[in-house]
């Protein structure tokens, strides 16, 4: 076994999560780093935020792979006086590369929603909730089944146990005793997939960032039950799957790397408080 260059690691990441699969508005790929640099340690995280970069520096990582982009829109400055500029300066000073796999990882087979589905207990074959036009095996979201039918409240508890802990856990819309067997999931914001969830005839749709009016109208119209989780929590399970697949690809080439999953909770919401009666 021998060490790898950054270029080789990127090649294997992109064999799993082809940048061509990303949405036109997305920004994926190598953000900073020398392709000829040696990579021995890879930190995987959802968000490229200062706390994650600090974790990478402390662990002496050579590469951070994140799901969310650092720069989703163009920029004219990476000055250290800016929030994102300071991140770039810290990465470069510490010889740490940054790579992003976002919507290309969302639609991959397997991808972000596959990992989410397994985390909340779905078994057997999974199919895309919204298949990609050019390849029906890929696409947004996944539909699968539970090993047995359970009440909605029990499935919500199972999902909460399978996802990383956040300050506000899960929100559930629907009859707590509703039988649940067929489930749709989508990592990240899933508002745009409500129609597909209804058409799929599932018992519940688990996703993140659901808004009041679309969710209310969906439930009132007789749609499946809804479970709204933290955005970060629905995407975090993918990190382990990505790490396993990347290291396996490299190992097949006689290359060994060490991976670590960031446990830094980067969900934006940190505390909850109940209103008094």
UniProtKB/TrEMBL annotation:
Molecular function as annotated in GO: metal ion binding
Annotated a divalent metal cation binding sites: 67-68, 106, 231, 235
Gene Ontology cellular component terms for the protein in this record: cytoplasm
Keywords for this protein: Metal-binding
Short name of one Pfam family: DUF34_NIF3
Stated family: Belongs to the GTP cyclohydrolase I type 2/NIF3 family.
Subunit-level organization: Homohexamer.
Protein name: GTP cyclohydrolase 1 type 2 homolog
Species of provenance: Thermostaphylospora chromogena
């Amino acid at each position: 076994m021998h060490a790898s260059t950054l270029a080789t690691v990127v090649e294997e990441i992109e064999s799993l999560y082809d940048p061509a699969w990303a949405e036109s508005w997305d920004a994926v790929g190598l953000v900073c780093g020398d392709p000829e640099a040696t990579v021995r340690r890879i930190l995987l995280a959802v968000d490229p935020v200062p706390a994650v970069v600090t974790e990478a520096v402390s662990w002496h990582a050579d590469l951070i792979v994140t799901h969310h982009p650092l720069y989703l829109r163009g920029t004219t400055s990476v000055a250290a006086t800016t929030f994102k500029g300071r991140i770039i300066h810290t990465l470069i000073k510490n010889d740490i590369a940054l790579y992003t796999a976002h919507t290309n990882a969302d639609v991959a087979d397997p991808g972000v929603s596959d990992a989410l589905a397994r985390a909340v207990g779905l078994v057997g074959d999974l199919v895309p909730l919204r298949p990609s036009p050019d390849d029906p095996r890929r696409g947004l979201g996944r539909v699968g089944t539970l090993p047995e039918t359970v009440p909605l409240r029990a499935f919500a508890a199972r999902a909460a146990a399978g996802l990383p802990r956040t300050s506000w856990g899960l929100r559930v819309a629907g009859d707590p005793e509703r039988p649940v067997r067929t489930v749709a999931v989508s990592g990240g914001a899933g508002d745009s997939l409500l129609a597909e969830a209804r058409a799929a005839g599932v018992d519940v749709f688990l996703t993140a960032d659901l808004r009041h009016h679309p969710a209310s109208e969906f439930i009132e119209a007789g749609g499946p039950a809804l479970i709204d989780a933290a955005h970060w929590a629905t995407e975090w399970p993918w990190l382990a799957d990505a790490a396993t697949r990347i290291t396996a690809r490299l190992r097949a080439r006689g290359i060994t790397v060490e991976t670590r999953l960031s446990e830094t909770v980067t969900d934006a919401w940190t505390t909850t408080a109940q209103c008094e009666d």
